[in-house]
Write a structure and sequence with these properties.
Structural class: mainly alpha
Shape: elongated
Distance between the termini: 43 Å
Largest sheet: none
Number of domains: 1
Number of strands: 0
């Protein structure tokens, strides 16, 4: 009986279906991670592409330059996430100290997920404006608020980039 099961010719299709199931689950987790700060969404999308390519190789439909595009989008999104707090601080009239504080706060905030991603730039900009920029508390608060707005804008950008990454991967697999 085992010889009949092992000799069945449909195992290749079952394997490909399993690869697609894992790939789709990883893509969904990546999209969710672009909204949920504790899950590294963009990295999971890149891992989905890598898994799909390693599992199916030539049959995967993924070209090498897709990895370059996906990793480039991942890097751009991460840089934007860190810099957006500083840009928001400057946009709302903060000094260079507020911008530096927002960047430092964003980096420190990574260790205090999920709230550190929003509160880190806000607290960093506020603290640096008061301590080093010699600004009053009201002006420092406005700068801190601006860094919080910038950090929130990065959430929207992360979602757009994640959708773009998934669409790029699927277009490469099916149409290119």
């Amino acid at each position: 009986m085992w010889e009949d099961i092992a000799g069945w010719g449909g195992w290749d299709e079952v394997g490909a279906a399993g690869v697609w199931l894992v790939t789709i689950c990883l893509l969904i987790a990546g999209l969710a991670g672009s909204v949920l700060p504790i899950i590294p969404g963009h990295l999971i999308i890149v891992m989905a592409a890598l898994f799909h390519w390693f599992a199916l190789r030539e049959g995967s439909g993924i070209e090498w330059w897709t990895f370059v595009v996906l990793i480039g989008l991942l890097a751009a999104s991460q840089i934007y996430e860190i810099v957006s707090g500083a840009a928001g601080s400057r946009w709302f009239g903060g000094t260079k100290w507020g911008a530096i504080g927002a960047i430092v706060g964003a980096i420190v905030g990574l260790f205090f997920l999920p709230f550190g991603l929003i509160l880190g730039p806000l607290i960093g900009a506020l603290a640096f404006e008061v301590l080093f920029g010699k600004q009053g508390l009201q002006k420092a608060a406005v700068s801190g608020f601006g860094s919080g707005v910038g950090a929130l804008s990065s959430l929207a950008v992360k979602v757009v980039v994640a959708v773009l990454m998934v669409v790029w991967l699927l277009v490469d697999i099916f149409f290119i």
